[in-house]
Amino acid sequence: MPIAHSLKKVTKNVSKSTGSIHIKGRKFKQLNRAAVRDKKLQRKKLESIDKKSNELIIVTYFQSQIQTETQSSYTLDEMKELITSFIQQYKEQLEELEKENRKGRPISTKQKILQEKIKHQEHVFDTSYNVPDLSDEETVKRLRAWNGTTGATTGFKFVRISRNMKQLPINEVEMT
């Protein structure tokens, strides 16, 4: 008989048995393993969703910026400018919060989060940002028609761009 791994199946099997479960018993250990596995799977799922949503934020920003323009492709410098303006929007939000904050008061949690976000975005830009390849005309067309879902991003070509790049890389990067 196959071993049940999911918490739902294990609890169903354990509830069928008569009597109480002993702490050092086989069924208790099986139930404990299933509970730990279920928590781990939930955590991994949330991490994956969070990672995907973070990657989609810049793709959404790129789409909103190129939506009104009629260019069929963009240069490396133009893509760098888009990334810089993406980071700049967080800096503007931080400046507004700092203006609202009275002098002598501790900084708010929202300010701390924005400062960390800006620091992280700057670091990612220094190392390399995974963004849609706007030098490719087909990717620009698809990005303009994009509906905002993660599944539709598989049609885009992605490229890694860093602050100190002089030319576009030859090979594109898959979005994970």
From TrEMBL:
Pfam families: Tma16 (PF11176)
Coiled coil: 76-103
Keyword field contains Coiled coil: yes
Organism domain of life: Eukaryota
Cross-referenced InterPro entries: Tma16, Tma16_sf
Keyword field: Coiled coil
Cellular component per GO, a single term: nucleus
Protein family membership: Belongs to the TMA16 family.
Name of the featured protein: TMA16
Organism: Candida oxycetoniae
